[in-house]
TrEMBL record:
It is a single-pass membrane protein. The lineage of its organism: Eukaryota, Metazoa, Porifera, Demospongiae, Heteroscleromorpha. Residues 373-474, 477-585 form the SRCR domain. Gene3D superfamilies: Collagenase (Catalytic Domain), SRCR-like domain. GO terms for biological process: proteolysis. Its cofactor is Zn(2+). It is an enzyme of class 3 (hydrolase). Residues 1-18 form the signal peptide. This is Metalloendopeptidase. GO terms for cellular component: membrane. The keyword Disulfide bond applies. Keywords: Disulfide bond, Glycoprotein, Hydrolase, Membrane, Metal-binding, Metalloprotease, Protease, Receptor, Repeat, Signal, Transmembrane, Transmembrane helix, Zinc. It is found in: Membrane. Its main location: membrane.
Amino acid sequence: MNRITLFVLLLATIQVYSSPAALKRSWFDPEPRPNANNDPFKDNKSKDEYHIKDHGDYLKKNKKEDNKDDEFKSDIDDYKASPTAEDDKLTSELDHDRSNKLSDRPTVRTGLKKHNNDKGDKFSSELDRDNAAPTVTTPLKRPTDIIEGDIRLTPEQAAIFNRGGWKELVNSQAWYRNPAHNTKWSRTIVYTINGLAEEEEEALKTSMRQIERFTCLRFLEKYNIHPPYYIEFVDDGGCWSYIGRLPGAYARPQKISLSSGCNLAVPAEMIIHALGRFHEQSRPDRDEYIEILTENIESGFENNFLIQPAAETLSVPYDYLSVTHFGPKTFSKDGNDTIKSKKEGFKVYGQVNRMSYYDIQHINIEYCPERVMRLVNGGAPHEGTVEVFWNGQWGTICDIRFDKLDGDVICRYLGFPGLAVSVHKKAHFGEGTGQIVMNILDCLGNEDSPFSCKNTLGDERFCGNSEAAGVVCQKNIRLVGGEVIPDESAIGRLEVYFNSTWGTVCNDGFSTNAAVIACKQLGYATAMEFHPKFIDNFGYYNSTYPIVMYMVICDGSETMIQHCYSFPAPDDYCDHTKDVAIHCVNFN
């Protein structure tokens, strides 16, 4: 290669990486941008273009060794201020991960095929420079209880499906979340890995690091821990997951399968399903955004495109770039599109390269309320001006039509017991951090989240900062059975309201950081000491409440102990003789 050729290639490379589009493009875009003129799959096959009718056949992407120096940091503490970070910063951090490469994946999530990138496509050139040819591996046999390509049914659900088909299943109690069971995982998700191939295990760990970095969730390998429920990642015939945490023995462990070819962000998608989220194209409002071309669907697979009434939008915009979205040719019988966008300038991708901004937003709304809503300027964590994190910044709620029902839902969503004590208007606690981002919040009072209420989130403002809404909630922490010296100190057994119930905290793993946070949450300056022996020394009575927090780990930046990492106490492992008692004091 002569010098002139090298010089031309160098100039081309500089042009690609210095272009405004390349520098500003963000996986964390605050809005789904029209993408007709900026197509990441231009001249590149979508993940289902090579859909194989036989679920057993699959194509496997050839391996490429990851750049270990570009791995994500596993320490989520670096991202404590993430809601205020700019999109470009998030982009540069995430684009560092070389395992997030463009790839194509068939409909049924059994494997993938690697295609050459169009060198003129800037998005492709940023994410993937591997032009190696695809390889084909031995076919996998798919389980018979898989729907929508990667969602596995429990035996109960499968029996209903085989008896009455899809319609009976989606209308059954076995399919909807049962109020009698808590289908959410704890913030610390315990897991094991059993028999995964090297590439799939690396992709799984990368997905875990991404979720940890941008949400409050943390993954902890099981080892000698004996939690009441955990996830086991296995190679069990394809890429599949259950929806939500299953009740009882189904979650001891609950399996997620990652067979050969289930790499890139496919493990993230499987985890997202296990966290309780359905496919994006099955949400109730999908007909406003996409059209299902039933005439092109393989006979017998039409039921995979039905709307899921149980799927919640949570006020999050429709996401064409979600890793949970079907591709344009999913279950196609003739290679033609089965899904197309109704919105001009938008395209259905079906990408599996990395989670989208709204994939992260969904997790935070469901599991990390403090990352999307908070109370500020109050005298304690249970009161203040209500702020919402939207489009990359914090903003407030207009007080027009803001009432007690709205306050009730907000308090419950933020983890406080009972109903709101009071609601306030006219920026009673102060104007908050940013502009008004929600003009109207109209809750019925029985919603689990204010994002499930009718609202005008993101609409043009017609309300000023001086009209910000505020709320006072009931406290979600208390000391029981001890002594209180007004304005000076308090000592007693620690009880917290956590996961919708009052309970105690196990002393195992409890630290000074946790004690200080609890005391500040109670309105004191700091903690003098903590120990289960306080219970014996002061003759406290045993609690009749369950132990709701175990192995509590705080870094000191949390405003509530409920925001620290913990998981439920293992069965018969912690009893009330190990309940934490703390001594809080004020220094004048």
